Amino acid sequence: PRIVILISGTGSNMMAIADAVQSGDIDAMVAGVVSNRPDAAGMQHARDREIPAILVDHQQFSSREEFDANLMRAIDDLAPDLIVLAGFMRILTSDFVRHYRGRMINIHPSLLPLYQGLNTHQRAIDAGDSEHGVSVHFVTEELDGGPVIAQAVVTIDTGETAASLQHKVQIQEHILYPIIVKWCTQGRLAMTDQGVTLDSKLL
Ligand code: GRF
């Protein structure tokens, strides 16, 4: 299977997945990394790993539709089986999401359905929650609203800051996301009208 990873920033999740492919833990290839930002640090990390790093700069387009059409073309040129959003900070159009229905996943730093959107760590602290975490979900037209595949939980300790919590959550992200990507490339996971099905025969 061919994986395409979309990023906007550091790309630490992209690297965790690329490393799992490199080590043979995920039997697939990272066909390319696509960024909407020329300054995304993850672009250089991809090149360092000899993964094609493709820029589709959203600022070069006058509308979201035009950007998404170009993004789709860049992705489809890589003939992917799975699209992995890893810190990709653009809201996608319905046409784009529909085109990749059932084969596009995202990682979101909260225990969905809690805290969709931004600043999730601070919001969990402010709410006085004792637990927080990360979710991997299929992407649908509802932002951060697609069916959840798996979550990892961390505890919020006294004196926790958004930064310390983010660090804890990211450690879990780098464990969880490669596992889910592996399951997807093995064809074990499917999005259905009811949510997610996992074929556990191979577990
Ligand atoms: C992660 O925290 C992820 O949950 C969120 O964006 C961040 C991306 O970090 N969607 P990185 O670029 O993978 O380091």
Number of strands: 9
- Reading the helices and strands in chain order gives EHEHEHEHEHEEHEE
Report the β-strand fraction as a percent range: 15-25%
User: What kind of sheet is the major sheet?
Assistant: 7 strands, mixed
Shape annotation: globular
Rg, rounded, reads 16 Å
Structural class by sheet pairing and helices = alpha/beta
Task: Give the end-to-end Cα distance, rounded to a whole number of Å.
Answer: 19 Å
Can you tell me the CATH topology of the domain at 2-108 and 136-150 and 176-193?
Rossmann fold
Overall mean pLDDT: 96
Bound ligand species: 5-O-phosphono-beta-D-ribofuranosylamine
CATH-defined architecture of the domain at 2-108 and 136-150 and 176-193: 3-Layer(aba) Sandwich
Q: Number of helix segments?
A: 6
Q: What do we call the CATH homologous superfamily of the domain at 2-108 and 136-150 and 176-193?
A: Formyl transferase, N-terminal domain
List the helices and strands and how they pair.
Elements: E1 2-7, H1 12-22, E2 29-35, H2 41-48, E3 53-55, H3 64-76, E4 82-85, H4 94-99, E5 104-108, H5 120-126, E6 131-138, E7 148-155, H6 162-185, E8 189-192, E9 195-198
Bound molecules: 5-O-phosphono-beta-D-ribofuranosylamine.
